[in-house]
Each structure stands twice: as C-alpha cells, then as structure tokens.
Amino acid sequence: GAVVSQHPSRVICKSGTSVKIECRSLDFQATTMFWYRQFPKQSLMLMATSNEGSKATYEQGVEKDKFLINHASLTLSTLTVTSAHPEDSSFYICSAMRLAGVQETQYFGPGTRLLVL
Amino acid sequence: GDSVTQMEGPVTLSEEAFLTINCTYTATGYPSLFWYVQYPGEGLQLLLKATKADDKGSNKGFEATYRKETTSFHLEKGSVQVSDSAVYFCALSVLNTGTASKLTFGTGTRLQVTL
Known about the structure:
The complex is a heterodimer.
Chain A: E1 4-7, E2 10-13, E3 19-25, E4 32-38, E5 44-51, E6 57-58, E7 67-73, E8 76-81, E9 90-100, E10 103-108, E11 112-116
Parallel strand pairs in A: 2-11
Antiparallel strand pairs in A: 1-3, 3-8, 4-5, 4-9, 5-6, 7-8, 9-10, 9-11
Chain B: E1 3-6, E2 11-14, E3 19-21, E4 23-26, E5 31-38, E6 44-50, E7 56-59, E8 62-65, E9 75-77, E10 86-94, E11 103-105, E12 109-114
Parallel strand pairs in B: 2-12
Antiparallel strand pairs in B: 1-4, 3-9, 5-6, 5-10, 7-8, 8-9, 10-11, 10-12
C-alpha cells in the first residue's frame, strides 16, 4: 500500500516560535502533496498544494508568509508555522498524491497535533 | 463549484446492525468518488473508491456504488463492529489537466457502535 508519514505526531511550542512539520511518502514518489488543517469535529480545510520543485499554491485566506511550504524532493514536503500563536493550534494533516496511469489517489499522513501555549 | 453533502451525525448503532451513510455530490466533469475513515486522533485512511459510474468500491465489508443518475455514493456495511466507530468522510475529485486534482470533502459523519 501507499504509506505517508508525518513528523512529529505532536508538538507543543511557545507563542512566537516556529514549528516545522514533515510529510514523507515512504513507498512512492509524489510530485504533489497537500496540507490540510482540521478543527475539532470538523472537516478538513485545504491550506495549500505543495508542488515539487516549485512554489506552493495557497488557498484563499491562508497566509503564505505564516505557513511556509517547501517541497524539496519527490518524497518530502515540509510545513513551517512561523511565529506561532495559540490560534494556530490545530491538527495538521498532509496527503501525497499517487498516480497510477491517469488515476490519482491521495494518501494521508497520520496528522500532527500542534498546541501553541 | 464541486460539493459533497453527507448525512449529519452522529449515527449510533448496535453491533451487527446495518449501516448506511448517505452521500450525494455535485461536480463539473466526471469525478472520482472516495470514502475516507478517520479513527480518533489519527489522520484519514482511504476506505474505498470508485472512478466511474456503476463502479462499486469495497473494503473491509464496506461498499459504495457510484450512481451517476442519482449523483450518490452511499456507504453501506451489513454488520458493523465496535471497531468501526470513527468519522467517515465522503469526497470527490475531478481530474484536471495540468494541475493536481483537489479533494472536496463532505463534513464527515461520526459513527458510534455500541455493544
């Protein structure tokens, strides 16, 4: 199967610091990865599309200077929450797009729970 | 735009009961349809998918059939277990030329199975 990992699974940080979350596709290459945010008991909100070797595409209302995305290789994308504030506390989930012919399927990581104090 | 509508939860069932979670969609083009499951504190896992009309996706006793005429993709299971307690998300994606297809999610349906 297709496996996507995230690291760390949980992180607690102080307000004003930056936090980096890694997303890796372990057994396939992914030119495209996605970053989502999920609030308690709600659906996933797409934050941005991460494209290998090019700039990420952010959804409307998502601050690109606050949520820095880097997709340096075909198996790794990182999300950095800069100058984190308590309102950034959330569950962040990445997914990696796997291509099989013309079929695209997103496989999700286990998520990272961020708590900003 | 594309959208997915799911029945609101929570859905509470006794073990071995029959499960149906309704999902309907609107989309431009010909979407692929998915069911994802999220267990407490975890990310989403792909449960099943169907890529064209009349396809049936199945996995772990769950089934869903892509019904173009009713724009539906209802999730069913004949006999639920306590371990099936989770949140279920219906989603679609439309293949785009030149850009990655984004998933559009429903709001999720929480299933609680009791003994």
